[in-house]
TrEMBL record, chain A:
This is Replication factor C subunit 5. Belongs to the activator 1 small subunits family. It comes from the Eukaryota. Keywords: DNA replication, Nucleus. It comes from Kwoniella pini CBS 10737. One of its GO terms (molecular function) is DNA binding. GO terms for cellular component: Ctf18 RFC-like complex; DNA replication factor C complex; Elg1 RFC-like complex; Rad17 RFC-like complex. SUPFAM superfamilies: P-loop containing nucleoside triphosphate hydrolases, post-AAA+ oligomerization domain-like.
Automatic annotation (TrEMBL), chain B:
Pfam families: AAA (PF00004), RCF1-5-like_lid (PF21960), Rep_fac_C (PF08542). Residues 51-188 form the AAA+ ATPase domain. It is found in: Nucleus. One of its GO terms (biological process) is DNA repair. This is Replication factor C subunit 2. Belongs to the activator 1 small subunits family. The keyword Metal-binding does not apply. It comes from Kwoniella pini CBS 10737. GO terms for molecular function: ATP binding; ATP hydrolysis activity; DNA binding; DNA clamp loader activity.
Length: 356, 364
């Protein structure tokens, strides 16, 4: 039994539920025989990967779905061994170089050269080039991105790149100017409802409007999340009626609790208390950025309008520091201390303007 | 099968139909290089006297740096000698200190052979030195760059170096001072226009009026970007049956430019009217209004960097905004851009920037 997310994932461009213009554009590109490098970008859960796989199918036929997973070993110039998981078919290869952190350049150099210098041997293949899919392209280091530049032009006849990223801001300009940028926007609420109803119909049950509404509210344009929530909900309450409580992930409730306790009392003791809770979250592998964003969102909802911009300002400020520094907890804690100060000041003297 | 086609020099023969136009229309001689008159003039002198200094080319992407040096090398050596005399290394090759010590040094050390006549019957200057092109040199490590210093001097009789980079500041001073520097400026619109029109004509591109101009405007002096846009648009429109002329909307879509109405909406929640300047009645949505707008940007997948750039372009030139709010807004935009470059979270950064601009607008 696979999850609904996988079970009802569209396989071809015709089955896609939304962005019809985009689908037709991808179709005409793959039919033209002269396929560019593509950079797909958009928020998570919008359907980037689904569209990439559908495009590949359009290019090569159903053969691309025969996947195998290899573990490849790369050796850095300093003789360090790197293990990278690679998913490939006869026609394409998919990898996430950012898994190996700062050594991603080695992976990119090695694998692209290898693909680029070998030609397609399968005479039945529809295209003469292979496709390399690079996931999380925005997490690549600058060096790795620089390594892509000339390769993209030089080996165009044997290879095409498909990059998948959340945003183009972190992709260097030379790469952007070599790719066709394809934006995959998150589906609108109507489009999401249509997809949910489609799934419900396939599973042979009706979807009450109230249920779909609460799913949409909790998923915020992330279709993958919506489908997962939907399935969980169906498990809990098979008839999908009455008071539907969308089960929030534990960490989210936990973050909300932290936010509440920050607003309850502002003291050194409380800070220590909160620190323990944040450690708890971090040790469960919740990314620190997500923790900070969730907490600040909750706080912003609860404080006076005059304070909101400041809370956001400091959130942005400490989030940035967190990225640049190496010890995440310091910056999270500093943020919380700052919020406590502002909040207390505001409550005592009724005014605070603390930006610097 | 083309798979078994005979090898062209160094590269496999490609069906020209599928070749990227960027490669297809790379200038063959340095006379073909668009604008950059100054650089071309100097290089032509060097070509006739066959005496070349070490060179450092720098400038923004898509201004013809790599094209110029490749064309120059081709004119100097001709197709036969090109492979033996020119070593091209770019960031996709390993370029740590070990490579500089081994590969570059070995190549630099070899004495060039005497040459006979070229196979295509033309006479090339074939000067008695080799050329090492280090493309994207700004991504070389400091150590590797320092290792180059001595090599450049020791073998300067038989080897010339050409460093190509975007940011001259990333090249260490001792290397930069050994080279004669050539700055490639962003291309002026009229000189790129001729090139784009030539390509459009050669490829039989049908475009509506003003589309070519729009491409050039969006590319902002980056000729490669302009050519890529043109080719992509042609692919999209050529694949439809029957082929339609390219229209402006698809160019907008390809280039990832945020539509004007989204920018207008963002400006309005910050209390700015696109034409009239500050209009605080628009920004009554308060904090929530800004947050909803920023969330929408994220949900539709626009890149925060692009949005920021367009907010800047729409906001800063407005003549009716007084100096103080405008300066504060410019500061907010600049800091947000820095934050984005350093890898800050897009939503937080953009939200903070918008809130600051909104606040700035009330201060006049």
């Amino acid at each position: 039994m696979s999850l609904w997310v996988d079970k009802y994932r569209p396989r071809s461009l015709d089955e896609l539920h939304y962005h019809p213009e985009l689908s037709s554009r991808l179709r005409s590109l793959s039919a033209s025989g002269d396929f560019p490098h593509i950079l797909f970008y958009g928020p998570s859960g919008a359907g980037k990967k689904t569209r990439i796989m559908a495009t590949l199918r359009e290019l090569y036929g159903p053969g691309v779905e025969k996947l195998r997973i290899d573990q490849r070993v790369f050796v850095t110039p300093s003789n360090r061994k790197l293990d990278v998981n690679v998913v490939q078919s006869n026609y394409h290869i998919e990898l996430t170089p950012s898994d190996v952190g700062m050594y991603d350049r080695v992976v990119i150099q090695d694998i692209l050269k290898e693909i680029a210098q070998t030609q397609q041997v399968d005479l039945n293949a529809k295209q003469r080039f292979k496709v390399v899919i690079i996931n999380e392209a925005d997490a690549l280091t600058r060096d790795a991105q620089a390594a892509l530049r000339r390769t993209m032009e030089k080996y165009m006849n044997n290879m095409r790149l498909i990059l998948c990223a959340n945003s183009t801001s972190k992709i260097i300009a030379p790469i952007r100017s070599r790719c066709l940028l394809v934006r995959v926007a998150a589906p609108t609420d109507d489009e999401m409802t249509k997809v949910l109803q489609h799934v419900a119909k396939k599973e042979r049950f009706g979807l009450p409007a109230s249920a779909s509404k609460s799913i949409l509210a909790s998923s915020q344009g992330n279709l993958r999340k919506a489908l997962l929530v939907f399935e969980a909900m169906k498990m809990q309450k098979p008839d999908l009626t009455g008071d539907l409580e969308v089960a929030k992930p534990d960490w989210e409730t936990y973050c909300a609790k932290i936010a509440d306790s920050i607003l309850q009392e502002q003291s050194a003791q409380k800070l220590l208390d909160v620190r323990g809770k944040i450690y708890e979250l971090l040790s469960h592998c919740i990314p620190p950025t997500v923790v900070l964003k969730t907490i600040s969102e909750r706080i912003v909802d609860k404080v006076d309008d005059a304070l909101k911009p400041q809370i956001v300002h400091w959130a942005a400020y400490y989030e940035l520091r967190m990225r640049m520094g190496s010890k995440k907890i310091f910056h999270l804690e500093a943020y919380i201390a700052k919020v406590m100060t502002i909040y207390k000041q505001f409550n005592m003297i009724g005014y605070t303007d603390d930006y610097e | 099968m083309t798979t078994f086609a005979p090898k062209a020099t160094g590269q496999l023969a490609v069906d020209p139909k599928f070749q990227p136009w960027v490669e297809k229309y790379r200038p063959k001689t340095i006379d073909d290089v668009s604008s950059q008159e100054h650089t071309v003039a100097v290089l032509k002198k060097a070509l006739s006297s066959t005496n070349l200094p070490h060179m450092l080319f720098y400038g923004p992407p898509g201004t013809g740096k790599t094209s110029t040096i490749l064309a120059l090398a081709r004119q100097l050596y001709g197709p036969d000698l090109f492979r033996a005399r020119v070593l091209e290394l770019n960031a996709s090759d390993e370029r740590g200190i070990s490579v500089v010590r081994e590969k570059i040094k070995t190549f630099a050390r070899e004495t060039p052979r005497h040459v006979g006549k070229s196979s295509d019957g033309k006479i090339y200057p074939s000067p008695p030195y080799k050329l090492i092109i280090l493309d994207e040199a700004d991504s070389m490590t400091q150590d590797a760059q320092s290792a180059l210093r001595r090599i450049m001097e020791t073998y300067s009789k038989i080897t010339r170096f050409c460093l190509v980079c975007n940011y001259v500041t990333r090249i260490i001073e001792p290397l930069a001072s050994r080279c004669s520097k050539f700055r490639f400026k962003p291309l002026a619109q009229n000189s790129t226009q001729a090139r784009i029109e030539m390509i459009a004509q050669n490829e039989g591109v049908q475009a509506e009026d003003g589309v070519l101009n729009l491409i050039l405007q969006l590319a902002g002096g980056d000729l490669r970007k302009a050519i890529t846009y043109l080719q992509t648009a042609q692919r999209l429109h050529g694949a439809i049956e029957p082929p339609t002329p390219i229209f402006a909307l698809s160019i907008h879509e390809i280039s990832g430019v945020v539509p004007d109405d989204l920018i207008t909406y963002l400006l309005s929640v910050m209390g700015v009217d696109k034409d009239q300047g500050i209009d605080l009645t628009l920004g009554t949505g308060g904090f929530e209004g800004v947050r909803t707008a920023v969330k929408r940007v994220g949900r539709e997948g626009w890149s925060a960097g692009q949005v920021l750039e367009q907010i800047h372009d729409a906001l800063i030139p407005l003549p009716t905004i007084p100096a103080l709010p405008k300066s504060l807004a410019a500061m907010a935009i600049a800091e947000c851009d820095k934050g984005l470059c350093e890898g800050g979270d897009e939503e937080l950064q953009l939200l903070e920037c918008c809130l600051r601009i909104k606040d700035a607008m009330t201060k006049h």
